[in-house]
Amino acid sequence: MNALPFEAALGPALDRLAPAVREHFAPSGTRRRVRGVMRRVWRRPGLLSAIGLQLAAWSNTLFPETGADIPFEMENALVRLADGRLGVTWNRTFHFPARDRRFNALMTFSPERRVVVDWLGDDRSLEVELRLAIEEGAMVLRSGRQWRWVGRVRVPLPRWLAGCATVRVWDAGDDALGVRVTVWNPILGDFFGYDGAFREVVESSREVACHA
Asked: Which of 36-40, 46-50, 59-63, 102-106 has the lowest mean pLDDT?
């Protein structure tokens, strides 16, 4: 019950991560804030991708804005779920010149499925299973099966409708972590992504929040 999501999923294999990457995914504190710059935030040109990303922006998942050297910050916080498990929030903010965009999620571990589950959006209505890999000390996350919750109804998303993400996080040196995210779809191909680096700036609070 007290294991963090990535600790529960990977067990001793977690130690194969570079130390800074391990601390990012299995933090020793209960709250962690990082800041950095996304060298590039991009999307596929075209009306279809723009509409889809605008719809996603309403729930603080993806967004249609693009740019170079975009200031970025993220806060992770440990939360205690109603069933006693620990989860970790991932609340990202991209500071574009005209407005801020947020990309929020809660990650948990499912003991029944033996996978990390990413609950995306402010309402946690998009449920995504994550496949994990450790490659040369870097963490690589690839999205798997997905469901959309409509009220209490869990609707499986067909592959052609889902946005499938690959996330790579590595030790970039100089106390920084590098990140590269690519989201693709069988119809659109690669349609959204960003890459850059960030550093920890604040770590505080020993209390674990509660989350229903």
From this structure: 46-50
Calpha distance 97→100 (Å, rounded): 8
Contacting residues for 142 by C-beta, under 8 A, at least 6 apart: 130, 131, 133, 164, 165, 166, 167
Dihedral sign from CA coordinates of 36, 42, 47, 53: negative
Rounded CA gap, 164 and 186, in Å?
9
Number of domains in the chain: 1
Look at residues 89, 93, 61, 88 and name the one whose alpha carbon lies nearest to residue 74. 93
User: By residue range, what is the domain housing residue 127?
Assistant: 5-202
C-alpha to C-alpha distance for 147 and 164, rounded to whole angstroms: 12
Distances (CA, A) of 6 to 86, 118, 150, 184: 11, 11, 27, 24
- pTM, two decimal places: 0.90
And the tokens for 76? 């992770």
Report the CATH number at residue 69: 2.40.128.20
Q: Is 211 a domain residue?
A: no
